[in-house]
Amino acid sequence: MKKLITFILSLIIAVIVIIEVLIFLHITRLPFVQLTFLGATHSLTHWIGWIGTLFIAFSTPAQPIVKRKFPEHMQTILKIHMIGNLIAVLLVSVHFAHQVTRPGYSLNDFDTGIILYAAMILLVTTGFVMYSGIAKRFYKKGLFLHPAFAISFYMIIIMHIIRNGL
Fold first, then answer.
1. Which end of the chain offers a freer environment for a tag, N or C, measured as fewer CB atoms within 10 Å?
2. Domain that holds residue 118
C-alpha cells in the first residue's frame, strides 16, 4: 500500500511540475476572470491560490492532532494529509505561476510570495522524502525540518497577506 501511495504522490508532483512548466512557457493559462466572494473581487487564479492555502492551513495541524488524540486513524489522516496537501500545492502553484508570469508593468513586489512558495516546496520535499524513505538517513532531520517548514509557512503566509492584502 505504501508503494501505491508513493506512486500517487509522485504522479501528483509530476502533474504539478508539468502544469508549472506549461504556465511558465505561456503554453497554457487560465482565463482572466474576476469573481466576487464575500464582497471581495479577485481573479480566478487568486481564489484558486486561496483555496489551496486554506486547505493546507487547516489540514496541516489536523494531522498531529489526530495522531495524538485518535492514533487508530493515523494512516487515514496521513493519506488525506499527503494527497490533499499536494492537490492544494497544485492550486497554489497555478496561482504562483500566473503571478510571476504576468507582464512586467502589472507586477507588484513578489518577495513574500517567492519566499512563501519556497517554504511550501521545502515542506513538500521533506514530507515526501520522509514518507517515501528515499533518504532514510535524513529521517530524523526531517522530523525537525518538516514541522519547522510548516511553522515558516504559517509565518510567511501571514506576512504575505498583510503585505499584499486579501
1. N
2. 2-164
